[in-house]
């Protein structure tokens, strides 16, 4: 979930609008309870040519103003493949991220 969510967060910032995972670090903070609604929040922190760095976390969906309960945090680097310029980019997918 974190790999896909963080990747889609940075796709718009990459030159060919697609990237592959070059590095992914996940820190698990606490177990996720079954039957919970979760939120993945991600931010693109840096872009340098075909590389993009992203950080994010998974938290419990709660009411507005509540302190977030974070289950896992991640950082990642994604690279837009050179061959992506020829083949085009994948823009449709399962995840629909409104804002990154």
UniProtKB/TrEMBL annotation:
Record domain Thioesterase: where: 1-59
Pfam families for the chain: 4HBT (PF03061)
InterPro entries, per the entry: HotDog_dom_sf, PTE-AB_protein, Thioestr_dom
Name this protein carries in UniProt: Thioesterase domain-containing protein
